[in-house]
């Protein structure tokens, strides 16, 4: 399991495959978990979710960008998504990754790009969620959030439960709308829990803390054990259903997504789209090799 995970994480970081895949269109079964390559295709997917009472957080795929031009293109695309959310009246907000907007190129350049995006979204009362990436990008991402918080309130971020310092960050950012996840990247032992049991335990602890003390919580997991625990915890502690939502990735556990929405829980699907689908798809395979079924089905159903 460990080896398979490492293998797909390595594949997700392969520059040649990442850039080649931009020309392939959605392949290998990625279309089950990526909502198209264009804004128009994404809008159609979000409309279908909204019709089922499910909101969306939209991710224009792309990360680990090292060229200014690429970061500017990403910014332009995200501004177009904001216009589309507003223009089509979608029940949706944005998720984005600071590295896509140039964090690895220059901090101030990235900050300026993000300022433009957050300001535009603010005009339309659209929320921007900063995804959190690997440890090397954690502190600069929080620094950008701190700077933007001086002028804007339509921003929130993610706490990754595998980090030992997750607790400290959750307390510091308790007044933000917060997504809480287990953590997707490969991190060393001196920074992060490695054992699934430890991660799960910390995850539950952090969720409970934010439900009791924090602003709005987005509980982003496909783990029904966690979901069932949260439902019971919320009920036992009189936490109303409008103080939190469940989130899952597009194309994962679709029946459970619907079931939760039908039970009256707020539900928000993370909707990735765009030509930069390859790294995202490989990380999903790393987390759950059973997702290889998607690849196999696709290969035999040409
Ligand atoms: P996990 O993979 O631990 O599985 C636990 C159990 O749940 C499994 O044993 C199985 O029983 C069940 N299960 C899981 N997936 C299933 C499936 N597809 N079908 C059936 N059963 C299934 N990470 C990060 O580092 N930064 C970020 O910004 C984000 N953002 C983010 C947003 C959203 C909306 C989600 C859902 C996730 C993220 N993540 C993330 C990823 C997150 O950190 C984590 O890696 C994955 O969600 C996998 O962990 P889970 O909690 O989903 O279950």
From TrEMBL:
Gene3D superfamilies recorded: 3.20.20.220
Names of required cofactors: FAD
EC number, UniProt record: 1.5.5.2
Biochemical pathway: Amino-acid degradation; L-proline degradation into L-glutamate; L-glutamate from L-proline: step 1/2
Enzyme class: oxidoreductase
Pfam families (UniProt xref): Pro_dh
Matching PANTHER family: PROLINE DEHYDROGENASE 1, MITOCHONDRIAL, PROLINE OXIDASE
Protein name stated in the entry: proline dehydrogenase
Native source organism of the sequence: Sporosarcina psychrophila
């Amino acid at each position: 399991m460990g080896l398979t995970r490492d293998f797909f994480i390595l594949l997700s970081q392969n520059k040649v495959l990442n850039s080649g895949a931009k020309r392939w269109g959605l392949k290998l079964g990625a279309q089950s978990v990526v909502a198209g390559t264009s804004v128009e295709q994404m809008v159609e997917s979000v409309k279908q979710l909204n019709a089922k009472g499910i909101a969306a957080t939209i991710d224009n795929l792309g990360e680990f960008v090292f060229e200014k031009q690429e970061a500017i293109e990403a910014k332009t695309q995200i501004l177009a998504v904001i216009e589309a959310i507003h223009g089509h009246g979608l029940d949706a907000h944005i998720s984005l990754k600071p590295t896509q907007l140039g964090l690895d190129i220059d901090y101030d350049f990235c900050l300026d790009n993000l300022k433009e995006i957050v300001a535009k979204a603010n005009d339309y009362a659209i929320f921007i969620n900063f995804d959190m990436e690997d440890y090397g990008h954690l502190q600069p991402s929080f620094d950008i959030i701190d700077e933007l918080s001086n002028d804007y309130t339509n921003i929130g971020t993610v706490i990754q439960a595998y980090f030992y310092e997750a607790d400290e960050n959750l307390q510091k950012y308790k007044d933000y709308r917060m997504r809480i996840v287990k953590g997707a990247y490969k991190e060393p032992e001196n920074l992060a829990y490695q054992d699934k049991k430890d991660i799960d335990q910390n995850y539950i602890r952090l969720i409970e803390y934010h439900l009791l003390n924090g602003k709005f919580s987005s509980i982003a997991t496909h783990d029904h054990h966690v979901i069932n625990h949260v439902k019971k915890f919320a009920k036992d502690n009189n936490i109303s259903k409008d103080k939190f939502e469940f989130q899952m990735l597009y194309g994962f556990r679709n029946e459970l997504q619907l079931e939760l929405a039908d039970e009256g829980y707020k539900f928000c699907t993370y909707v990735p789209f765009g030509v930069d689908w390859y790294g995202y798809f490989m990380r999903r395979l790393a987390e759950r090799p059973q997702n290889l079924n998607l690849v196999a089905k696709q290969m035999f159903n040409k």
